[in-house]
Design brief:
The complex is a heterodimer of chains A (about 550) and B (about 800). By secondary structure, chain A is α+β, with helices and mostly antiparallel strands. Chain A is built from 17 helices and 20 strands. Chain A is about 25% helix and about 20% strand. In chain A, helix 9 links the parallel strand 8 and strand 9. The C terminus of chain A is likely disordered. The C terminus of chain B is likely disordered. The chains are: A alpha+beta (about 550), B alpha+beta (about 800). The interface between A and B is large, with 112 and 102 residues.
């Protein structure tokens, strides 16, 4: 049993003990190492000023991805290699991203700049340029208040790719990765000032620890836990890092996708791009790349927020969750996993170990929606998933799940029954939307009023109808519509179902901007985290918040 | 070799990109440094019955807990009216109002003490909104008025009138670096304050007053800010006062840093406004009269609210000549943190009120809003026939029967170039901006396309709007239009410049460096701009009102010119060649590229440093103070008349939006910006100011909503819930350009200030939404600012009826 956390920060080997194990990465870097290029603004993963590269061992190699260091705690980081802006200069010279940022006036006040530099360096690490859409998606986790981003995009365009160096050229990563790989097999335990940290390497140890520590915080990505700790909502007494017992793999079987509990949302996004593009589109606006690179699907499910972006899709797909406890494993349908606001059926010793998501078949139509105040790096005000199977023009089966309209994600069973065996027409959907309203109980909170959520819920059924029956009707010069926005005008009399080509094609060509991207966060993103500090002032209902974490 | 006009990188850029630039919270802890925190009042309005700090003081590590009575000097302060109490005395007037100040050895003790301070409050009825304040007659100061003509008479005979109300939201600055200060006590009761402030002299004044010391005991230093945007003009002072009080009682260095959450909850914002408006106009869309009552939400104290209101009133006309004009203004007193300066300083609210009204006139008359704008633009003649598209519209020529107006005669302002407050608009580029942008943005073709699209699409709506800005440059408080600069030359030929300008990312130091480099004929590498320091520059004005470069750059140039005046005779003697017939003539001495020469014989040059060394030997003063006071500006608040601005920075924006009809989500499809920046000192930095300000303006009018609970708690107090624009919110097409205008003779090297004006162009995103909604009918157009997705969706008719009833007739 190791009694310290082992990690590298830039060239420096660090054994973190005692109170250091319970520090946030950004505090450790700024206060302990006194490297102040990493700035902290929001301390909740929603601005990217603290962006660092997190290198984790995947298949014996280190994979580097940008994350928010303010919500990563050292207890999550055993066996990792962290690189901050101080680690990215080339022999004391500015790297090509830095040179371009200087030349293109990409920095004004300079506070967000190191975060942008780190994220952009990783985007261009392979020396390949990216189109503007890909650059934007990679940078949605980084906020800038001065430049209006345009100079930063220019800097991205004008970076001299031929001078980019790989991380492997900057650091002795062979040596680092062999040491970290070996250390990955060690369980770690640290007790300090009444706090306990445990990193098991065997699942049964994990289950026993959980059972023995009812107040235990479970953590892998921790993109919400970190926020709760930073904002004083959660006190850490016992914390268990599950990286040593969580599978990171994602397997595609015949008709389902099997994700290990350690798989990040970025990894899930990549798998879905090919096999479940509709889900990939939604994951693409989940948090930001900085959040998705750390957060996991298992965490999002365990966190159980009624506005968790991933929940409605999994509800309509009848996803199954594998729970493992001291006495073995069981599979549970997600539709019966939640029993109340952030309450699940998990036993005191159980952990989520895998998630099985059925993939849509060629005759199944699925659409996933997220509505938020800002498209990217935001939490849902409202989320919806609809699954449809037609028999001719009749609705053979329909499943509707809505998030953000009640204390849990809701399946609209009455609406579903009423629509079954109806003709799939605009009128039928319009009528069903009235019934749908009777099944939901939205609240007013900081993200939107109950009235707004009701309107969104009612419109969703119509939107779904238009989206799957619509044809592009763009005139010349029509602005490129955002992927999130529905198709254009349709007229109900001209309804022709465009069969499976409109639908979730299981083997689509990825959009061009994704091609050849093996690495890091593509992404626009969506939301992250947040705290449920007294926002109930406008309502007696519990606040709707989405979080990822476990 | 000229540096002015070049895209010179920001002078801190190489530090910013490597993370080496030091902000106050990056400074290593000083020996013995203590932590400082406040006990924030949890109620918006309360009588303080008791505060008990006994238990808190017992906590190990707690060094002191101060209440109002422990303050050695004035607890009451304010930049204009002293009506704010740093620590609440009898009454707390906003959530976050400090009840006590805690000084502790470490954060843990600080947090424990905060919980242990006991207090009893008696809640009083709070007021939060403008409506409630009006009802309760809760105001700060008196009503203000600017008027011209006979508004009442104009309404009595007008063919059309229109009335309405318009709610305009506030805005959080969201500078990334939260408010912060570090106070270091020195010998003899002196204090050095490192403050992230746009106004070091204000911090110096307030710290001295709260500690009851003379100003010469307090030195304030600001190297740089991680963004300011007006939020650190007056309100950087509170953190500095907290830190200074802690340093005073402990005689140890003390640092006060707001967390982002607390900064957002407890500090002031852009003023929310409400406009009650009435307008009269002709069939052709010529505006005859506008009568507007503006109310601003000032929060709990005056702060800068009067000046913000004044600028809103002075900008209510925006780019339009309105013969009969009346605007009144009143500041509401509410129980919110005192609202304060924010880029634009009231101008955006005044302009939004006008541009909102123009969209409604356009809808009423079924005339394109751009035609209304051009018809009424300053400098257009009165009989402008509409719709007459200036030869650039549909069909490519004037409509038969329309007489195109004569081109505005350059340089000679006409009757229709006089503002309601009496200032004549010189060098008026507004008509040209409208015309050029209409053409460059392909407005008319796109308008046709949007008309078509909105007739057919049932899933999306498009809207487009082209608005302008005419932003007055100068502080409306005349006194502030002054600056001093200190230029020192060392014997190695290097130069340091200190001014009162503070660097918040806007590049003021870079611009001054360029100006000085050209004036002294030196490479940029010879010149450094020093941290702003009240010891070097006294009685400075805030870096605000877009005036940082204009004022401080001019003062620095003045100093450089005086130095050259002393160096030229020395160089003349050094270069003179009596035998060759070249007599020493200081007027012929030139400084260029680090060399000095006589322009009658430019082949012979000497090194700048040689001249300096020689001057030093001769005991010549190699340091100089420069000074500048803006000539001519004056404004009489009582009469509402005068010449408040040195000049105007103008611009235009054409913004097209795309709205999802099912969700109300909105996206910028295309934006074309066109600015008149005179002769730019640094086009790269100016461009960044334009795009940055514009996007910040777009945030204000779209996604940035301040949401409060019924008790006055700000619910959108962190980036999780308060959404500033993201990189993916940039328009799909974003064109930025400027017109060539060499005729702004009144300003520094014919440049124009750029910091604030483009923010007001963000309003075009709001009016574009309004334009889109106008296709659904008059009722749908009534939308408050910001136009959030929620407001847009709820403005549209509910989709419960048959499709045919919600597809409207086109607006035209």
């Amino acid at each position: 049993m190791r009694n310290h956390i082992l990690l590298y920060i830039n060239q420096q080997r660090i054994e973190a003990r005692d109170n250091h194990a319970f520090m946030s990465l950004s505090d450790f870097i700024r206060l302990h190492l006194r490297q102040t290029g990493t700035k902290v603004v929001c301390a909740e993963g929603d601005c990217g000023s603290c962006t660092v590269l997190l290198g984790r061992i995947v298949d014996k190699q280190i994979r580097y991805e940008p994350v928010c260091s303010c919500i990563q705690y050292l207890y999550q980081l055993d066996g990792t290699h962290v690189i901050n802006v101080e680690g990215l200069t080339y022999d004391a010279e500015l790297n090509p991203v830095q040179q371009s940022m200087v030349a293109c006036q990409g920095a004004q006040c300079g506070y967000c700049t190191p975060g942008f530099v780190v994220a952009m360096h990783q985007l261009f690490e392979d020396g390949q340029s990216r189109n503007e859409a890909a650059v934007k998606r990679a940078l949605t986790g980084n906020l800038c208040r001065c430049t209006g981003y345009d100079p930063i995009l220019k800097a991205a365009r004008e970076t001299d790719m031929s001078k980019m160096r790989r991380i492997a050229e900057l650091f002795p990563i062979e040596k680092i990765s062999s040491e970290l790989s070996a250390a990955a097999n060690d369980p770690v335990q640290i007790n300090y000032a009444g706090k306990t940290f445990f990193k098991p390497t065997v699942i049964s140890d994990a289950c026993r620890f959980r059972a023995g520590h009812p107040d235990c915080t479970l953590i892998t990505g921790g993109t919400d836990i970190g926020v709760q700790v930073n904002k004083g909502i959660r006190q850490i007494t016992a914390v268990m890092n599950l990286h040593g017992v969580s599978q990171r793999s994602i397997e595609i079987k015949n008709d389902y996708l099997l994700a290990g509990a350690g798989a990040t949302l970025t990894e899930l996004f990549r798998a879905c791009e090919e096999y479940f593009p509709e889900f990939a589109n939604l994951l693409d606006i989940f948090g930001s790349p900085l959040i998705r690179n750390a957060g996991t699907l298992a965490g999002n499910l365990a966190n159980g927020s009624p506005i968790g972006d991933t929940l409605p899709p999994l509800f309509v797909m009848n996803a199954e969750i594998e729970l493992t406890g001291i006495n073995g494993s069981r599979w549970v349908n997600i539709n019966s996993f939640y029993v109340g606001y952030r309450k699940t059926i998990m036993g005191e010793d159980e952990l989520i170990t895998a998630i099985k998501i059925p993939l849509p078949k060629p005759d199944e139509i699925v659409k996933f929606y997220k509505v938020s105040r800002r498209r990217d790096l935001d939490i849902s005000t409202f989320a919806a998933a609809i699954f449809l199977r037609l028999s001719g023009k009749l609705i053979h089966e329909i499943r509707i799940a809505l998030g953000g309209v009640g204390p849990v994600v809701l399946r609209l069973s009455k609406t579903e029954s009423a629509l079954t065996n109806q003709l799939f027409t605009e009128d039928a959907m319009l009528e069903a939307s009235n019934l749908a309203l009777s099944e939901i109980t939205p609240i007013t909170d900081v993200r939107g009023s109950a009235n707004y959520r009701n309107r969104l819920a009612a419109n969703t059924l119509l939107r779904f109808y238009h989206d799957i029956t619509g044809q592009p009707s763009n005139g010349n010069g029509h602005p490129k519509s955002p992927p999130d926005h529905g198709d254009n005008g349709r007229d109900s009399s001209s309804f022709i179902l465009q069969a499976s080509s409109l639908i979730s094609n299981p083997h689509p060509t990825p959009p061009p901007e994704y091609k050849g991207r093996e690495g890091e966060g593509d992404g626009r993103d969506g939301h992250s985290s947040s705290s449920n500090i007294q926002r109930s002032a406008l309502s007696s209902n519990p606040p709707s918040e989405q979080k990822e974490s476990e | 070799m000229k540096h002015v006009g070049q895209n010179v990188p920001h002078d801190s850029a190489h530090l910013h990109v490597t993370g080496k630039s030091t902000f106050i919270d990056d400074m290593p802890p000083l020996h013995g440094e203590v932590c400082v925190g406040i006990v924030p009042c949890p109620k918006a309005h309360a009588k303080i019955l008791s505060i008990d700090t006994t238990a808190a003081k017992q906590i190990p590590g707690v060094l002191a807990i101060l209440a109002a009575a422990d303050i050695p000097g004035h607890n009451r302060f304010g930049p204009v009216v002293q009506d704010e109490y740093l620590l609440a005395e009898k009454e707390a007037v906003f959530i976050g109002h400090p009840l006590a100040l805690i000084v502790a050895e470490n954060k843990e003790a600080l947090l424990a003490a905060r919980k242990a301070v006991k207090f009893q409050l008696e809640e009083l009825a709070p007021i939060f909104t403008i409506d409630d304040a009006i009802k309760a007659s809760s105001f700060l100061g008196n009503q203000r008025l600017i008027q011209r003509g006979d508004v009442d008479k104009a309404f009595a005979s007008a063919p059309h009138t229109l009335t309405g109300t318009f709610d305009i939201g506030g805005q959080e600055h969201f500078y990334l670096e939260s408010q912060v200060a570090l106070a270091v006590p020195g010998e003899d009761n002196t204090f050095t304050i490192h403050s992230s402030t746009q106004h070091p002299s204000e911090v110096q004044t307030l710290v001295a007053e709260i500690l009851a010391v003379r100003f010469n005991h307090v030195t304030v230093i600001c190297k740089r800010m991680g963004g300011g945007f007006g939020g650190k003009e007056t309100q950087a002072a509170q953190p500095a006062m907290f830190a200074a009080l802690a340093a005073h009682v402990t005689r140890r260095p003390a640092r006060f840093v707001y967390s982002k959450d607390d900064d957002m909850r407890f500090t002031g914002k852009r003023h929310p406004f409400k406009a009650f408006y009435k307008t009269a106009f002709t069939d052709q869309g010529e505006i005859l009269a506008v009568d507007t009552q503006l109310y601003s939400n000032g929060g709990c104290s005056t702060d800068l609210s009067f000046a913000v209101l004044e600028r809103a009133m002075l900008h209510n006309d925006n780019a339009y000549f309105i013969p009969h004009f009346r605007v009144t203004g009143r500041v509401c007193k509410t129980n919110l943190p005192s609202n304060t300066a924010f880029r634009g300083f009231g101008g955006p609210q005044g302009v939004a009120a006008m541009e909102n009204l123009i969209e409604e006139i356009a809808h009423t008359l079924k005339i394109d809003a751009l035609d209304i704008r051009q018809t009424n633009c300053y400098g257009r003649r009165s009989e402008f026939p509409s719709p007459c598209n200036q030869g650039e519209g549909k069909g490519g020529g004037p409509i038969a029967g329309c007489v195109p107006p004569p081109p505005p005669s350059p340089g000679i302002p006409g009757e229709r170039e006089i503002t309601p407050y009496g200032q004549t608009i010189a060098n008026n580029t507004l008509p040209r901006l409208f015309e050029t942008l209409r053409k460059d943005s392909d407005y008319d073709r796109r308008r046709d396309e949007i008309d078509q699209f909105n007739q057919h699409s049932r899933t999306q709506l498009r809207g487009m709007s082209l608005t302008a800005v005419k932003f007055g440059i100068s502080f409306t408080r005349r006194t502030l239009n002054q600056a001093n600069a200190l230029v020192n030359i060392y014997v190695d030929g290097s130069v340091v410049i200190s001014t009162g300008a503070t660097e918040m990312g806007q590049g003021v130091n870079t611009r001054i460096r360029q100006l000085a480099a050209d004036e002294l004929g030196l490479p940029l590498s010879s010149i450094r701009l020093m941290p702003t320091n009240t010891e070097k520059n006294n009685n400075t004005s805030p870096t605000a009102a877009s005036s940082g470069t204009d004022l401080n750059g001019a003062a620095a140039l003045d100093a450089c010119q005086k130095l050259k005046g002393r160096l030229a005779p020395i160089a003349a003697k050094m270069l003179a060649d009596q035998a060759g017939g070249l007599h020493a003539e200081p007027d012929h001495i030139r400084f260029l590229a680090g060399r000095v020469f006589d322009d009658r014989r430019p082949a012979k040059t000497i090194d700048f440093q040689q001249v300096i060394c020689h001057a030093y030997e001769l005991r010549i003063n190699l340091g100089e103070r420069g000074f500048y006071a803006t000539p001519g500006v004056d404004f009489n608040r009582d009469t509402g008349k005068g010449h408040p601005f040195l000049y105007y920075t103008n611009g235009g924006a054409c913004t097209e939006v795309l709205i999802n009809r099912f969700t109300g989500e909105m996206k910028l499809a295309r934006v074309d910006l066109l600015m008149d920046l005179g002769q730019s000192i640094n086009p790269g930095i100016d461009r960044g100011q334009v795009t940055g300000a514009f996007i910040q303006g777009v945030g204000w009018v779209t996604t940035e909503e301040l949401v409060y609970s019924a008790q006055g708690n700000l619910l959108s107090y962190s980036p999780t819930t308060y959404k500033i624009p993201n990189i993916s919110d940039l328009p799909d097409v974003f064109n930025v350009s400027w017109i060539d205008n060499p005729d702004n003779h009144v300003s520094l090297l014919r440049s124009k200030s750029v910091g604030e004006p483009p923010l007001l162009l963000g309003i075009s995103a709001f009016t574009a939404v309004k334009n889109a909604l106008s296709y659904l009918g008059e009722e749908s157009m009534k939308i408050a600012l910001p136009a959030t997705g929620e407001r847009i969706l709820l403005a549209m008719p509910a989709r419960t009826a048959k499709p045919s009833t919600y597809v409207p007739a086109p607006a035209k």
